[in-house]
Amino acid sequence: MPGTRIILGVSGSIAAYKSLYLLRLLQKSGAEVKVVMTPSATKFVGALSFRTLSGFPVFIDLWEDGENLKSAHVQLAEWADLLLIAPATADTLARMATGRCENALDAVYLSSRKKVIVAPAMDHEMYHHAAVQQNLQQLQSQGVIVLPTDTGELASGIQGQGRMQEPEQIWATVQEFLQPGLWTGKNVLVTAGPTFERLDPVRYIGNFSSGKMGYSIAEAAAQKGANVTLISGPVALPFPSNVKGIQVESAQQMLVEVLTHFPNQEITIMAAAVADFRPAEVANQKIKKANTNPILELVQNPDILKTIGELKQPNQKVVGFALETQQEEDYAKQKLASKNLDLIVMNSLNDPGVGFGTNQHKVTLFFKDGRVSATPYVSKKEIAQLILQACDTLL
Ligand code: CTP
Fold first, then answer.
1. pLDDT confidence of residue 211
2. 213 and 145: one domain?
3. Which of 8, 165, 221, 345 could lock 169 by a disulfide, CB 3.0 to 4.6 Å apart?
4. Separation of CA 332 and ligand 1 centre (Å)
């Protein structure tokens, strides 16, 4: 890890003594390490030990009135390539999951847009408490890498799960994580959600897309180190913290944003359920009830995917989706060819449980070179991982 800058965050667990050794391992691999401690961590291990080993002042007091400490949390967050919190206590994890900022470590975490790895450490019952598990899930959805805990003898004397991983194991994971992978630094564009096509100031035509698939793909690609731009129609999901989110409403707005960003992308994944039609006219005032049945005139929306399929350069890969209710394979293959795609992800509404808003899902992948593969029924997050694995072969 020569030249890698790591912030080692230490929170108040007895496992903090192992962090001294972890610090040493990171340094021996060439990393520069600065330490941030929570006040309770200093009750287990003295800051002087970390200061002596790291060769840098240890940041503990957010309110310290010293030189250069005015925005030390911001400077530190910018300085680092990685924030590694080991041990991460239940309390620190809870504050991270809810965005609270009570100490220097919280402030560094909230100021950082870099990769974050946490190594939880706590007692068995605490670790398995629903609130702790919920916080861990929340952190994962924010893009934080949560390391598993070990099972064995705990500080309380009981046998159970919750021990912080051994420093060698954490060090190996950090090394693996920092290796440049296939997706590291790649520009990836993802679209997600429905588009809403306005009828009048209070109504629109839309569809039931929840955005879950596209958001999961964007989040997973960012976790693999890609620079992800996510263009989303109206959904109830927050943008993942590690992607550049762009909000749009209509198909025409989505086209403008996609065309703006497409030229720099190595891979574009169009998971959005773009409305095929929009009202020919948008009324300026609310359309009032009439005695006759209103007739809506619709016009075709641009086909965004087809447009970028035509613009695609040899170094660019484009992935589309197909939602079919009949002759699924034929229609999906037709779209693959007519939109000049490298891969199409087919959802069949005839597969039980598949559809908008569901969590369990199943897709079939058709590649340009004729390969076909089907996923099992798994969560949309797992489908996202499988789609990215399929894209590995395109990259
Ligand atoms: N798509 C698009 N622009 C549109 C319609 C669809 O970019 N106006 C994209 C979707 O994001 C998806 C793919 O095209 O990746 C296929 O969408 P789908 O609705 O299955 O097919 P359509 O092309 O709309 O064809 P049809 O409605 O006839 O099935």
1. 95
2. no
3. 165
4. 10
Quick one: 153 and 208 in the same domain?
no
Do residues 212 and 118 share a domain? Answer: no
Cα of 111 to ligand 1 centre, how many Å?
Answer: 39
Q: How far is CA 31 from the centre of its chain?
A: 26
Q: Quote the CA–CA distance of 219 and 211 in Å, as a whole number.
A: 12
Active site residues: 207
- Band of pLDDT at residue 209, cut at 50, 70 and 90: very high
From the CA of 275, give the closest atom in ligand 1: 8
CATH code of the domain in which 88 resides: 3.40.50.1950
Position 35 pLDDT exceeds 80: yes
Rounded to the nearest angstrom, the distance between the alpha carbon of 338 and the centre of ligand 1 is: 11
Give the domain-ending residue among 142, 157, 178.
178
Pocket of ligand 1 (CB under 6 A): 251, 270, 272, 274, 276, 301, 303-305, 320-323, 335
Which is nearest to 242 in space by CA: 141, 104, 95? Answer: 141
What pLDDT, in 10s, does the model give residues 184-204? Answer: 899 999 999 999 999 999 999
Distance between CA atoms of residues 58 and 253, nearest Å: 48
Contact 133/232 with Cβ under 8 angstroms? no
* Residue 192 sits in the same domain as residue 98: no
Yes or no: say if 155 and 194 are a contact pair by the CB < 8 Å rule: no
What is the total count of domains within the chain?
Answer: 2
Find the 303 Cα to ligand 1 centroid distance in Å: 7
Among 159, 178, 197, residue at a domain's last position: 178
Structure token digits, residue 219:
């989040």
CA-276 nearest atom, ligand 1: 8
Domain match, 211 and 343 both: yes
Whole-prediction pTM value?
0.67
Atom of ligand 1 nearest to the CA of 321: 15
* 92: containing domain: 5-178
Q: Are residues 204 and 236 in the same domain?
A: yes
Give tens-digit pLDDT for 92-104: 999 999 999 999 9
Q: Is 297 left (phi over 0), alpha (psi -120 to 50) or beta?
A: beta
Q: Is the pLDDT of residue 65 over 70?
A: no
